[in-house]
Amino acid sequence: MTTKPTRLIRLPELLSRAAISKSRFYQAINPKHPKYDERAPHPVKMGSTVAFVESEVEEWLQTLVQRGRQPTADSKEAA
Fold first, then answer.
1. Is residue 45 within 8 Å of residue 8, measured between CB atoms?
2. Which residues contact 10 (CB under 8 A, 6 or more apart)?
3. What is the pLDDT of residues 3-22, one digit of tens each?
4. Are 18 and 58 in contact (CB under 8 A)?
C-alpha cells in the first residue's frame, strides 16, 4: 500500500492559489471574526514558522469554488 506524502506549503503559496489577501485569509481562520470559515486550513507550527497542509488547502479551495458557483437569491429573482 502506498501513501501520498504530506506536502506543506507556506503562506505566500496559499495566498497565491486562493487569490486572496493575507488579511482576508487571517479573517477566515479567526473564529471571532464575522468572516470566519470553519473549513479554512489552519497553520501547522514548525518552530518559528508556519505552513499549511496542501491537501487541506486544496479541499478548502474546492469549497470556495462550489460556494461561488451556487446561485444566490438575487440571481434567482433576476431570472
1. no
2. 49, 50, 51, 52
3. 778 999 999 999 999 999 99
4. no
